[in-house]
Each structure stands twice: as structure tokens, then as C-alpha cells.
Amino acid sequence: MKSKSKRKDFILALRSLTRLYCSGVICALFLLSQAVATTSNEASISSEEISNSIKIIPDPKNNIDPVTAFSDTHTKPFIFDPILLSSETKNWLVKIDFSNFAALNQNVVLITVDQGWDKVEVINSQRQIVAITGSKIPIGDRTVQISLLVLPIYKPNELEYFLRFSSRFDDYDNPTEFVTNIQSRDNFAADARKRDIFNSIYIGIILGIIVFHFLIWLALRDKLYLLYVLHVSSFSMIWIHKSGILSTWLFPNAVSWNYYGSFFLVGFAIFFGNLFVEYFLRLRRNLPFISKILIFADIAVLISFVAGLAYYWDFAKQLLAFTSLALVIFYPYAGVKCWKDGFKPAKYFSLAYAILLVSIFAYTLNFFGFLSELNLILNQALQIASVLSAILLAFAIVDQIKRVEVHKKELSIKIRRDLEKEVEVRIAEIERQRSIVKKLLQESEKVNKELLSANFKLEQLNFQDALTEIGNRRLFDRMLEKLWENWKLNKKSFAIILVDIDYFKKVNDIYGHLVGDQVLKVVASRLTQFSKDGFSARYGGEEFAMLFCGETTDSLLEMAKDICLSISQTPIKLENAPVQELSLTVSIGGALVETDDQSKEEVVERCDTALYEAKNNGRNCFVIKKKIQPKKAAG
Question: What number of H helices and E strands is found in the chain?
Fold first, then answer.
């Protein structure tokens, strides 16, 4: 109960903190928009003015002298036309006529070139390279060490400069124009300050959101918060990477990452976005069709990665762009559908992605060449939209957790009531079953007593000879096994005696089996008198077996002699027989266990051999058999 109360208090505190934090973020966004909205007093130069002021000469082999090329009357420079770049000439020479830009009244002018150029050099009239930049040039080696491709021109109205552009035209980001902007140093610095303020505030807000919700995940261990952190992190990393802050300060020499990073970050953003949407909206259960579409989107991202690594960049970029466009349609559709089906947190989700995905849609159109005049605004709008979406998604998560807690509480009350009813029914059933069980126990107790009695009798029948009422062969084997194990462990000796009634077959033939049965009973009774310290059993037919412990050869001989005399000197009295009494003799074979015996069967075999020797010696006698020890060789 205490843990549930603490969790409830934590959820309430979390909601309050989230509202407070979001209020602070909204204030920061307002300040951010104000910073971006400030404009410079200097008039800007349009792209049309730039295009009309540059002259271009193709340099396929990178061996044309720019000074002589533009002064040669036989070489006619081109006026800029984007169609020029479709020829895939890898090198171009450009000359800018700065006299057309009356607004540029400073000694230093900064030229911003298309980000797709691998290398751009500024060459003066003495054919010296005075500035260099390019996407394949490490930031530390550029003249202006920032992520933008910027070249400084000193005294543009007095000195003559030429620009050499180089690109492979088969890579990830192919150029579509030469010069994108020309600004004075002051104007460029003002724009740079605005960008820095904007990016710093943006990174601060995003970092706060990520850390805040990561700490919540550490406290609650709720998978939804972890997926939210991954989603927001991966999406915001696109714009942080495009801002150039990471490449400028952390990875200035990582040319490949700075060049290709945004492509792969978009793919990761799609992947983690799909995971978050799948888990948040429970698409496998609510909208399995959309869930399958997200799986295909993940596969498309993987294919675009493979295609990009194989340098099929046109296919890779188009596939990734079309995947983004598809998700622009399916994300809000899934949110609205779940909202319509009664999933209330989906309203925040739908609003968040309405803001975010409209920005993505505009950015994708810009990728295909539309709205190119709004590049700066679109980049800023996407970053602001990502912050607003992150805030709304945070509200959605908190709202979902709140509803889950309420649902758990309602479900707990319902379960408790159902359990109470079930317990009452079960108690009544248990009482009824208890009375039945009591009767059954009484009956079973009676049956158990009968079974014990029957089992005892059955046990006796299993180990008792039915005629003589002494042990049978099975019991003899069990007792012999115990004596043998005791011998192996403790070396406690034992002896076996086999007793056979002489000429017993004639008794059955002459007087009948009834007389023979009486004889067997009397002999068994007399043998029992000698086995008070041992054990006697009917071994089979007219043969009996006896076991003794601790006997010596002399004591065993004495016992065998007494048994022979007991049978031969005392006639057996008969009832309902042709004769009143009958005199019989027995033959006895015995053996003691010896130290070199390998098994109990050896002792039995030796005893059996002794019995046959007694019979061969004329019967009515006894033989105690020992092992024949091998003679030692003479020395």
C-alpha cells in the first residue's frame, strides 16, 4: 500500500513539474522567436541579383587559368543557369561582378556557397589561393572555420578574384547552385549571432527535455519514457547536426560524419519514431495494419542505408524521403483513429504530430525543390515544431500514465469486489466439500484398515511357504542378500545348511502325497527348533535351507550332526495314514562364507556340492564343504 501511495504522489508531482517545465519552455520559445525575428538594417541581395552577376566557365580537366580565361575574348563565359550543373562537369571557374552590389560598402564581403560543393577556392589575380572551403574540407582547414561554406573576399570593388568550384556530382549532397548568399561582414556577423542564439536556446530546451524525462525513466522504469527519450533525441539530433554546432566544436575533422550524418540521423529518427508510436498507441492491438506499415518503413530505412553505403545516393535519398512522406500520412491517421476509438491521450499525440509532420512535409517539399525561397524559415520552423511536439508528447505520456493509474484503481476495486464474491462462493463450497471429505475420510479409514490387514496377509503369503508355514525360497534369497551385504561391509561371517529328506519320492509313491505333506510339516517344525538364532526356509520340494550367523566349522558340524540325529532317531507320527509312524533320515550339506568368495552364489554352490557328497556317501550324513586352496610350489 505504501509503494502504491508513493507512486501516486510521484505521478502528481510529475504532472506539476511537467506543467512548470513546459511553461518555461514556452517562454524560451517566445524569446527564441523574438531573437530570430530581429532583422538587419542592411538590404539583402536576392538570388536573382547573384545569378545575374556571376560568369561561369567549365573547367573539366581543372587546368584552365582563370586570369586568362575570363580576359580571353575567344572564351565567352556563361551567365548562370541551373541547367549548367546537369552536365556533371566536375570543375567550374566563376567570376563575380561586385559592382552590381551597391549595398556592399564594406572592405570585407562574405560569400556563402552551396553546401554540396566538395571544395571551393578563391584565387586572386596573382593566381594565389587566398581562401578555401568545402564539404570535404575539415573545418579546421577552412579559411572561415564554421560549418557553413563561407569564403571571405577583401576589397571586392578594387581587387579581382576568381572562384574554382569542384564536386564529384555522384555523392550524397550534389550542388544545385554556385553562390547562395553574398553579405557584408557586419550583416553576416549579425545573422551568425542570431543563429547561435537560436541554436543555443534550442539545444538547451531539447537537452532539458531529454534529461528530465530520462530521470523520470530511471525513477519509474517505464519503457514509454525511454522510447520517448530516444525519439526526441534522434529527431532533434537532425537539426542540431544541421546547425553545425557539433561539427564545429566536437568533430571538426570528422569530414565523413559532418557530410553524411544528417542522412543517417533521419533514418534513425524514423526508426525510433516508429518504436515510440507503436508502443504509445498499441498499434499491434489497435491498428495492426498501421503496425505492419511501420515495419515496412523500418525495412525501407535499412535498404536506404545499404544503398547509401553502396553509393547509390539518388535512390537512397529518394527512398528515405518517400518513407518520410508516407509516415507524414500514417502517423496522424493512427493518432486520430485511436483518439476516435476512445484512447484519450491520442489527442495530444495527434496535435503534436500535426505540428511536427506539417513541418516535415514542408521540409520534404523543400528537399524536392519546392519552397526554396523559405530555406531559413523552414529550418527554424522545424526546430520550433520539434520542441512543441516534444512538449505535447510529454503531456500525452503524463495523461496516459494518469489514465493507466485511474484504470488500475478501478480495476483493483472491481477485482476486489469480484474476489470477495468469489471468496464467499468458495467458502460455501469448501464447507460443503469439507463435510463430504469428512465422510469419505471415515469410510477411507475403514477401508485402509481392511487394506492393511489384507496387505499384511499378502506379505505373509509372498514370503511364507503355504504348506509348512515357514519362509519360502523368496524370503531365503532376501535374507541371504542381507547377510552377504553385511559380510562385505563388516566381515560378519555366516553359514548355509541345505537339508534334503532321503528317499522322499518313495514316501509319496507308497503312502501318497497327503502323508508326504505331513512329513514335510514335521521336518520343517523340527528344523525351526534349530534355527532360533538363525533362519529356516523351504528351499524347494523336499529340500530345506538354513542360515546362521557367527558359526565356526566345528559348531556347524555339531549342528548338522544334531539335525541328522533329531530326524533319524525320532519317528514321525502320522494321522489318517496307512501306518502310525514313519522313520526317515536326512542328508545335509553346509558351507561357511570365506574371505576369497566373490559372490553369495559361490557359497550356495559349495553348499549344494556338499549336499550331493553327503548323498553319495550313503545318505543320513552331513558334509561341510570348504574351498580347496591351491598348493604352494616347493621352494
Answer: 17, 16
Q: Is 262 exposed, middle or buried (0-12, 13-18, 19+ CB in 10 A)?
A: middle
Q: Is pLDDT of 396 > 70? A: yes
Strand pairing class (535-540; 161-166): unpaired
> Between β-strands 494-501 and 543-549, what pairing exists: parallel, antiparallel or unpaired?
antiparallel
Place of cell 571557374: 93
> How confident is the model over 284-315, as pLDDT tens digits?
888 899 899 999 999 999 999 999 888 888 88
Helix 185-220 to helix 223-243 angle (10° resolution) is 170
Per the DSSP assignment, residues forming a β-bridge with 122 are 131, 163
Distance of alpha carbon 361 from alpha carbon 471, whole angstroms: 100
Sequence-ordered list of residues with C-beta below 8 angstroms from that of 507, at least 6 positions apart, any chain: 501, 515, 516, 519, 582, 584
Please count the other Cβ atoms lying within 10 Å of the Cβ belonging to residue 46. Answer: 10
Separation in Å, CA 355 to CA 321, 390, 559, 589: 18, 10, 113, 110
CA–CA separation, 415 vs 178, rounded Å? Answer: 71
Residue-wise pLDDT for 565-610, tens only, equals 888 888 888 888 788 888 899 999 999 888 777 888 888 888 999 9
What is the sign of the dihedral through the CA atoms of 54, 57, 62 and 68? negative
